[in-house]
Input
Amino acid sequence: MTQQETPQSEIIVLVPTGMLGGGFKREHIQYGIARGAHAIAVDSGSTDSGPSYLARGVSKMNRESIKRDLEILMDEAAKAKIPLLVGTCGTAGTDSGVDWTRDIAVEVAGILGIKPKIACLYSEQRPVDLVAKNQQGKITPLPPLGPVTDEVLESCEHIVALMGPEPYIAALEAGADIVLGGRTTDTAVLAAVPLLMGAGVAQSWHSSKVAECGGQCTVNPRNGGVLMRVGREAFEIEPLDLNNQCTPESVSAHMLYESSDPYKLTEPGGVLDVTHADYQSRDSRVTRVVGSTWQPMPYTMKLEGARCGDFQTIMFIGIEDPAVLANLNEFQHNLEQFLIDRIRTTFVEEAPSFDLSLRFYGWNGTSGQPVPANTPPPRDVGVMFVVTAATQDLANRMAKACNPYFFHMPWRRGIEMPSYAFPFSPAEIPRGQVYEFLLNHVVHTTDGFELVRTEWVDLAKKAEALEYV
Output
């Protein structure tokens, strides 16, 4: 696939789902290809589930789901002779995530009997290289963080830089059938083909922002992905399911998704502005959008970094005691203070290195905030005990020290000792290490290639080499 000297009137990109491994119907993919799709593009990552996957360099999604989705996408893309692009492989987009996805793709190619040319784009960064850039003043913070220190960079287990579309475009121009990307902005992997084939810049970015989560921009998000139909001055979004709809409301609403500004979206190399975008129903299923603009900016790539921290142990109980339920705020405060004092007096020398919290689900377990006065008591609550300490052994021992009191403490002293329901034995559950995001910064680069490297797996050439041997 190469740059079009004369842009086609519409560039069509099939977005099967919001995240590879999420599942979709083969007939939806076949419908999109029959409608003229020039490429299939899909995201495969997210920071939504926290820093663990980046710190450990592992996928949130299971291998079986990734393989199942790739079998369908690679099969249909090969039959249609169109490229397949996957962004942020392995959830966090680490080098290991790209390699993991590559190995699955190679296995699937063997099953299907195809020999694609696969480009692997890597954007994981070495701390030593970023320290050098930091000392040159090329790393700047995003609110609310301040300047990053060299020590913070060096403490990260993994750091990735969010790619723009340029490495994908270069890979397609070099003949890639499949492009597997490291950490990439959700929109860039979708925008690459429209930008390559001459669609409008603002239209390419805006349509990609709308379609980044697949069917999330439709009336029924569970009913399959979407088609982006991108022109020079406008774009259209069409659901892959014939019984689904993309309305002006569902399409425009996606600019609110994971955005601090409902009108502007910052991407590598520029800012998308939809302040004057106009969303109109083309028919009962399709929405057409005009009026988006693009403002070029100096190129930056956002950094994400995470490190390993302390260890946690958790315990659970369920409470139906009417007296406790009628006095939950007081009970929570008293129990928490008692357990903290219990740890401090039992682990005198080790006590400074711990944190304890109680989450009362069914009361204030989600927000952690005090419940307003006169709130009716619930029928029951589930209580999660969480203790965090420097080692797993210490966290386990602290939980055991709290066990009798957590399970049997009355809401006031002098009341007969109760017994609360606990679902597991042993009660203490080692949760493992805690992980932490450290970076909310951008690195200033000369272009979209500076922090990216490309490696190739050409299965056709490998097969020829084996035949020659």
Observations:
- The two ends are 31 Å apart (CA to CA).
- The first helix runs from residue 26 to 34.
- The chain has a mean pLDDT of 95.
- The CA atoms of residues 232 and 286 lie 18 Å apart.
